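Late entry, evening session. Most of the bench is empty. Finally got around to the prediction I had been postponing all week. Sequence below, unchanged from the version circulated by S.P.
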Amino acid sequence: MNSSNNFDRRSWGEEHEELALNYLLEKDYRLVKKNFRLGRAGEIDIIMRDGELWVFVEVKARRNHTFGLPEDAVTESKRRQIKRIAKGFLHIMELKEYEARFDVVAVDYVTGREGRPEIRHHVDAFR
């Protein structure tokens, strides 16, 4: 894969993370961190607060459904990775007692209208 494709994929992801973030901000969530990276373990797209609850958000987008719906891309392996990174984040924050939730935001151009994507927010998508 050349650097042009890497840039295209990164800007595609950034664009949809921004759409998801704006959607959540409109729902009165508070932004804590975008693109939190924990070494080689990976990255969580968005970390937010919903009241006192920590919310770890994975954003997935699709132009077509050839490989399923956007939310279908959050596999069991991806869920384990997100949970591991969230645990690392909470440890870094030195939180001993907390409530956390894992959400998925799907950005779907297939089900959207007039060139605008449909945004589906799956609250407490996995545990």
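Two things to note before I forget:
Strands lie at 30-38, 42-50, 53-62, 100-113, 116-126.
DSSP finds two helices and five strands in the chain.
Will write this up properly tomorrow.
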